[in-house]
Amino acid sequence: MRLGPLTLPWRRNPHANDPYWEHFVNTPFHDLANSVPELLRNAPEGVVFPAKAELHTPAITSDHLKQLATYLGACMTGIARLEPQPVDEGGPYPYAVLCAVTADYDPRTAPGLGGQVPVQNALFVTFVLSAWMRELGYRATAVEDPDAVNLAVKAGMGRRTADGRLETAKYGTGVHIEKIIRTDLPLAADG
Amino acid sequence: MAVAVEKATTPAAQPDEARRPDARPDIPPPPSLGRSVRYVGPVQNVDMNQSPHPMNQRGELGKALFNYQHNTVSKDPLTRVSAPNHFNDKRNFIATVVNQASKGTVNPKRVPVDDPEAMTRHIKAVAHYMGADFVTIAKAHPNMMYAGNRYVQDGTAADQYEQDTPADLVRKFPYLIVATTAWDYDKLQAHRHHIGDAAYHVSQIKGNMLLKSLEGYIRELGYTALRGVANPQAAGIAGGMGELGRNGLVINEKFGARIHMPDPIMTDLPLVPGKPADIGVPDFCTICHKCAVTCPTNSITFFDRVPGEAPKVERDASGFGVYNGVEKFKINWLTCYKLRPYVHEHWSSCLTCAVICPFTKPNTWWRTMTVQALHYCPIPARPLLVRTLKAIDDRFWGVVRQKRVRWMGYDSGIKPGEQACTVAGCTADHEAGHSTSVDSEIGYYAPLKENTNRFVKRGS
């Protein structure tokens, strides 16, 4: 049980008496076609809506984007300015949107579905959020980026630990960022 | 294989005999569905090709509804990424990606299940861990099964069991898992509005994902998981998801009517089924009528349930009576459905009957206490308790729900058809301009009831 910043000492593992939980968290998939995280990771992206939506100011648009990310399941959302700006055939991407979800297990070391649930949740958020940005008429692409933790630090979400994880004030290292969203949607960068 | 569309029928003269759905002695009697729904006669399996969406896909419900469902791109960006069939590019709609994925194989190394109760707790814990809000297990019965092909709106349902009869499927795969997600309470207050749509559709696509994931996990455990084979309402009610209300929705003990009833997972994984819930829904619906009063299309019956009396069926095929061997409340789905093309600029899912239902409240201690009071109240005393609770509901939540809701720049305080930016501090140059005149806390929802009486007129 969490009481503000305190974690009460009698907090118990709710799955301690579940004989199958270890299998759920740590047993790798025998067939990746059964894995929704894998399915979402390889999902194609749709096109940008041909008409641009009427936007509010960048600060308000950023606030609305964070409201939607929270509603989709992100525990924290940050916006970082990209320097240098990556460029593809449509032009440069000035911003990166970082969506973190809570993670009881480190997906890098827990290959079972339970261990990959943060990946599933994070990909759900980035899929729908980037699709919404494209439907607003702006370019947005969700990509895996080895620099994601550094960008999250730049966006003021927390600090980088020695083993390369993001550590936040509220959730500690119990967060996971799977993909970042590069976009040219006019936003206000954090940090 | 028997194929039927739901039609009003008379109750069988001998209920005990009618409990045998066909002549085969190896089929058990149908399960109890609690007090809100009863099997009272032979049930013919319903072909889902005769249900509303497939009928509309074939153009059998008229041009307006066909074009709305298949040729209308929503003007709302969030609707385009969260609601079925109104996208600009289907690759921006996650349910397309999830539903069209090919199915994985069953793991040949089956995890042995010595204790089905432990496995039941595990499956429920897994579903909750992935985001489900309520999970139940039902014992499958042929009455709950669809006839004909699998009901899968996207992708393929082909597998080695596709030609099996309902009875054979039930024998091979005796359990149905119903895992659902609840609609956000605060956003839902903006019913008949894009904010309410977000409550409904985002929880729906989240539910699609978690059910696909749960289905894959069951295969990884070494057991079969089938989709598109069973009626979710029947399975949910049998397993304890809730009771069927006058509005045709399953009403849940924690969330009221604000839950989806998604496609159940049929499996041979050893589980322990739940029992039907008793939270006083039939007692409430007999007295309440709030959903029937506020339905913008008059699609919900005012008739009351009177046990033992002949069924009451209105000319519009709604009412309380026996439909295909099942005694229940039934709405007029056609008039409910037909409104949508005329309001698609304002919303895509009505939700009014779910919002106004007195059971639809935040999941708080006082709500739990009230539902428990109904559960433990002796049935003869329930009408008195229900009248008291309804009076409280009318007093504090209103006879008609008109709460103003603001979220992400959407504002239900702006009248339908008008456009203005009401976001505080916004200095952007909007074509429609900024508005500071919206200062009341009243929400406006299209259409007004008096403008929709042409769908079904009451009192004639």
Could you characterize what this model shows?
The complex is a heterodimer of chains A (191) and B (460). Chain A has 191 residues and is α+β, with helices and mostly antiparallel strands. Chain A has one domain: NADH Oxidase, CATH 3.40.109. Chain A is built from five helices and eleven strands. Chain A has helices spanning 21-26, 36-41, 58-72, 113-135, 148-154; strands at residues 2-3, 6-7, 76-81, 87-88, 91-92, 95-102, 140-143, 159-160, 166-167, 175-176, 180-183. In chain A, α3 (58-72) packs antiparallel against α4. The longest helix of chain A has 23 residues, at 113-135. Chain A is globular. Chain A starts with a strand and ends in an 8-residue tail after the last strand. The model of chain A has no long low-confidence stretch (mean pLDDT 92). Chain B has 460 residues and is α+β, with helices and mostly antiparallel strands. Chain B has one domain (1-401, 452-460). Chain B is 31% helix and 10% strand. Chain B has 16 helices and 15 strands. Chain B has helices spanning 15-18, 52-57, 63-70, 77-82, 94-99, 116-129, 166-172, 185-188, 194-220, 232-239, 281-287, 290-294, 333-338, 352-356, 365-376, 382-397, and strands spanning 8-9, 38-39, 46-47, 134-139, 146-147, 175-180, 225-226, 243-244, 250-251, 265-267, 312-313, 319-323, 326-330, 406-407, 410-411. In chain B, strands 1, 2, 11, 12 and 13 form a five-stranded antiparallel sheet that branches. In chain B, strands 4-6-10-7 form a four-stranded antiparallel sheet, with helices on both faces. In chain B, strands 3-5 form a two-stranded parallel ribbon. In chain B, a hairpin with a 5-residue loop joins β8 (243-244) and β9. At the A-B interface, α1, α2, α3 and α4 of A face α4, α5, α6 and α9 of B.
